[in-house]
Amino acid sequence: MVGGTGLVITDFTADPTEIYTDASGRIMVTIANKGGAVVDAGDAVFYLTGSGIKDSLENDLYWSARGSTTSVFEQISKTLNPEDPVRGTPAGEQTITYTLSSPTGIAKGSTRNDIFIGRLYYDYSTTVAGNVWIYSEAESDAARASDRSLNSAALSSTAGPVALYVKAIPDPVVLAAGEDTFTLQVKVSNVGGGTLYEAGAIDYSDAAPDLALDAETELNMVEIDIEGSGLTGFGDCEGVQELVAGKDITLSCDVTVTSPPTTMQSYQLEVTATYGYFTERTSTVTVSGR
Q1: Are residues 164 and 238 in the same domain?
Q2: pTM of full prediction above 0.85
Q3: How many domains does the chain have?
């Protein structure tokens, strides 16, 4: 299992942190792709909310927009690639700045602490890929007699807020004459510290997307897809799966080897989890009346 993160709010700063009423302030946001999957332009959205923010950004007791825009939503408008150590390219980033006016309705001599919350919604994926070794019983016996070790599965994972652990049971797989199945186990874990939901549940292209997530049909959902060369029968491990209460799940399926080897053979395997995810940061500003 490889833990990690996907899109991350690496900076969420209010400037200044102490301000008078009817003054100019800024919320500065930096978002970076710290996982292993590409996020295409338009497949993520940033949402600014908090104790002093209303969706309209217009009210004397709330912060208001300073400028032409009044939206609390900012679409991620560029493709964010993960870091590429081989090419030496850094993780893709996007910066967002909200320029706001502090509330005007706070009385002179009074102060109020406003909490700003920045929340990032996006679709992402985690992939485990590699090979599983399958041996005939005769080949396994021959290796044991010559004190030769058998190859175990070699699987590697991309980093993401959802971690996958994929295991062949037994490993390596040894098939007796007439046998053609082994067990595949897939464990799914939310390791990113945020909230998981079904990919596609939010329309990021909407200027004011509906962020309501149905607790029964969309929240804590992940879709698993499996591809394997010469392997079939992944049904019980695939499809949309629910992490009940956000807790880990383990899936098992009986995989059929379409043409069992007479000696030994490596079979390619790829398991992909696709999901939506949101994470957030907070910052506090003290507003004083004058």
Answers
A1: yes
A2: yes
A3: 2
